[in-house]
Amino acid sequence: MELTYITLSTKVNQLLTKLNVMGKDLYNGVGFDASSIILCENQDIVNLVKDRTDVVCFYLKTGTIELSLEKMVLLSYVAQDFIIPPVDAFSQLSLITKNSQVELVPITYQDVYSATKKDMQKSQLWNRFLTFHVSVLIEVIGVYSRFKMNWRYNIEQFQSGEIVIKQGDEAQNAYILLEGKADVCVNGHNIGHIQTGEIFGAIAVVTGNKRNADVIAKTNCKILKISKNDFFKFLGYYPKFSSRIIDDMAKVINRLNLSLHDEQS
């Protein structure tokens, strides 16, 4: 089967780098004792993920696994990466092993709870790690959407200093930054940056909340503006892949937080 490999945005690569650093800190600091699972080449592990409802993530010890949808590879996991399974969201996805021997280590909710219940910094690191993984999946969805949907005629130009999104406004569009750079500001304070290839403004569209930050063009920008209707068309094509990823990962974070709260009380 011939596959198409998408080009990851700068933002995705930055998030993946941060994930790798956090993942190594988490794994080396805990030392999980679970037995490894050995898989063969071209094996789809989606069913394995579905069967392991006690697992919060898998640590990929050796080999490569590709996350794909409709013959398009969205993301490649390599040795020392974590694979976090939002179970319901994987019904239309494939996770295919690419080596003759792939070794996975399952990490359960109990493992994480035991490792973090007395270490608040470690607990916060796990939460940040899970949140970063959500961000990676959202960014990958944005890249994939450019291949799937026809939004060629919704490209707009913004001059340096021009407001793209205004804090407090209703969320009517999601955006992809095609060229240039933009700043994210809350109450006049710069809190982050948006790089070429990054999708932004999507969460407020999904949740229906008002914008919680300004986005201001730092340089002259070319931006793909996706109307709420068009964005939900994409969610309509792949509702489990898009919206349930966010929902399921939020539940993971909430479950870990509740465990820690129960222990402290």
TrEMBL record:
This is Cyclic nucleotide-binding protein. Gene3D superfamilies: Jelly Rolls. GO terms for cellular component: cAMP-dependent protein kinase complex; cytosol. InterPro entries: cAMP-dep_PK_reg_su-like, cNMP-bd_dom, cNMP-bd_dom_sf, RmlC-like_jellyroll. It comes from the Bacteria. It comes from Legionella spiritensis. One of its GO terms (molecular function) is protein kinase A catalytic subunit binding. Pfam families: cNMP_binding. Residues 158-252 form the Cyclic nucleotide-binding domain. SUPFAM superfamilies: cAMP-binding domain-like.
